[in-house]
Amino acid sequence: MLFSASVVASIPSPSISSFSVGPLTIHFYALCILAGIIAAAFLTNRRLTARGAEPWVVIDICLIAVPLAIIGARLFHVVTHWSYYFDQGREWWNPFVKDAIWNVWDGGIAIFGALIAGAVGAWLGCKWTGVRFWTFADALAPGLLLAQAMGRFGNWFNQELYGLPTDLPWGLQISYPNPAWPAGLPEGTLFHPTFLYEVIWNTLGVLFLLWVGKRFTLQWGRLFALYLVWYSAGRIVWESIRIDPSDVFFGLRTNVWAAIAGVVVGLAIFVVQKRRHPGLEPSPYRPGRERAVGGAVQSQNTDDFVDVSAPPASEFVADAATSTVASK
Question: Which amino acids does the record list as binding a 1,2-diacyl-sn-glycero-3-phospho-(1'-sn-glycerol) (predicted)?
């Protein structure tokens, strides 16, 4: 027998998902995502500077990576829910389709799309700043999981992406009636709080990545590879019990396939990078883009980098002294 929503041992959903400040409507969904991005930036900055990178070079990279990640996340969601947006012969100019695609605050962004587009943006940002791409990826990995954990609370405020009905004491209450309420289920039905499962899993993942990265000095993208495996493995489970609409291929939801691909790609990166780079990274910067010690200018200013192809200043001093003595 399913617990009713009046049972004390359950998780209530927030009664509001937004509030107004003058003419602006602030959505908690967006605030959760923004808070996650900020937290990830702080953690990544700390980890990058510990490796010897310029303080806050992460901001330069994020200026490119974050917008692309958001665009990619939305596009991936639309593509993997194609039948929802374009069923019944709808075309892209249909008012419903246009509103549904652009109203990101109503939910519907996919982390796997964010990873793909964000990786392109991060690569461009690293090329701009001179930071090694894999150094940045490893520094980002724990912060990325932290951002995902914080962002999942947005689904709680939106009352979306919950799982199958359950009689467990931590079942999630959903407002009734609700546009996403499964047909045929009575009022008072409780659901698996898949957002909470993912929050817990991702938080444990942050601790694991911080520990394993320090314990085994994982570099050259191997820590990021473990991030892909950890997150994707959990996502396979949570995605399998969700009941929100999704396209299905060969019996599995599209995001389950994406998560399986994430595990495979993560394992491949780990193995390949371990074989290609058995040693440690010599610097967080690419050759020729090393940061001068004590440099205080912006990372994109090439005057702040040491030209490693030139001999050190001490050699010029020694040559000058030798020439002076010889001339006497």
Answer: 152
Question: What is the C-alpha to C-alpha distance for residues 270 and 274, in angstroms, rounded to an integer?
Answer: 6
The amino acid occupying position 25 is: T
- DSSP annotation of 54 reads P
Whether omega for the bond prior to residue 182 falls within 30 degrees of 0, making it cis, is no
Cα(204)–Cα(158) distance, integer angstroms: 24
Helix (H, G, I), strand (E, B) or coil at 156: helix
Are residue 233 and residue 308 in the same domain, yes or no? no
Q: In this structure, what token pair is assigned to residue 106?
A: 């109503």
Alpha-carbon dihedral angle through residues 208, 210, 211, 212, given to the nearest 10 degrees: 80
Short-list 232, 107, 241, CA closest to 168: 241
Question: Which pLDDT tens digit goes with each residue over 282-316?
Answer: 999 999 888 765 543 344 443 333 444 444 444 43
82-85 contact pairs (CB < 8 A, 24+): 82/247, 83/245, 83/247, 84/245
90 is in an annotated binding site: no
Domain containing 64 equals: 25-286
Residue 116: pLDDT band (50, 70, 90) is very high
Q: Do 323 and 240 lie in a common domain?
A: no
| pTM of the entire predicted model | 0.82
Dist. CA 107–CA 160, nearest whole Å = 8
- How many domains does the chain contain in total? 2
Read off the tokens for 95. 């008012």
pLDDT for 274 beyond 90: yes
Q: CA-CA distance, 105 to 122, in Å (whole number)? A: 24
